[in-house]
Amino acid sequence: MDVYCSYKNIMKHIDSIQKGDIVYVISDIVRLARSAMEHNEDFDLDVLLDTITDKVGKGGTVLVPTFNWDFCKGKTFDYKKSPSMTGILGNAAIKRKDFIRTKHPIYSFCVWGADRDLLFERDPEDSFGEGTIFEYLIEKSAKAFVIDLPSMEGISVLHYIEQKVGVPFRFHKTFTAGYIDWNQEEKIKSCSMYVRNYDYDAKERLEPMNHLLECLNISDTTMINEIPFRVVRLKEMAQILEYDFRYNDARNTYQYKGQKQPKILTEKYDW
């Protein structure tokens, strides 16, 4: 769009998100906030969240990541006080009464909408496997709403597929630390995570997968104020990732020791 669009109106132009959708919001809002202020607008995180919840309506669900990895270092997770390490939008959601934080001490989400209470009841020990929010996102054909980031950036559903397939460069590890719950009761809690095996020196190389998702129209991009807003259909993305991990040696997603020369799969499905 050539004419400035207020951040309050951006969701009106995101046609890939509709009433009743389940939306996982991933964001880098620095440029969005700067653009608003350059056009004499006060930028309000709560207003931004309201525009997203209004878009999906009462039948929809909005999830904002509030991940915090201090638990992995043996630090106590405080359900009410431990901040999100995945952006200020998550910290804004934590403060709101219409959002509720899920229970996981590492991979929590703040959730609004139809499935809010259902997701609060989920309390898996695992980080990425059965019963987790990531499984829910795929099973329910959720959409990632990615603000000013590449399609795959920050979509931790990737790790759910890695664990499902059993990629060679990760293994299960259990972490134990203090946990202060929503009632401010303190206990000791353990959680498992499918962590990286550093012997493989695995490095993410997401550009080929970003390209493939765009070519297959699994990721739709809308440019507003020169900022990309992407909507990624997570179930279809998961299918492409699973194929890449099972049959293509993860060559469109990672580089690691012992792997064949990376290549890019095209929109013609040249696997």
Largest sheet: 7 strands, mixed
How many helices does DSSP assign? 8
Based on CA atoms alone, the radius of gyration comes out at 19 Å
Strand runs, count: 12
Structural category is: alpha/beta
CA distance, first residue to last residue: 37 Å
**Uncertain segments:** none
Estimated helix fraction: 25-40%
Strand order of the largest sheet: 4-5-2-1-6-11-10
Shape: globular
SSE sequence, one letter per element = EHHEEHEEHHEHEEEHEEHE
Strand content: 15-25%
Overall pLDDT: 94
What does this structure look like?
27% of the residues lie in helices and 24% in strands. The model has no long low-confidence stretch (mean pLDDT 94). Strand 4 and strand 5 form a beta hairpin. With 271 residues, the chain is of the alpha/beta class. It has eight helices and twelve strands. Helix 6 packs parallel to helix 8. The chain starts with 21 loop residues before the first strand and ends in a 16-residue tail after the last strand. The strands form three sheets. The protein has a seven-stranded mixed β-sheet. Strands 3-7-8 form a three-stranded mixed β-sheet. It has helices at residues 30-38, 45-56, 88-94, 116-120, 133-139, 157-165, 207-215, 234-247, and strands at residues 22-27, 61-65, 77-78, 100-101, 109-113, 143-147, 170-180, 186-196, 203-204, 219-224, 227-233, 254-255.
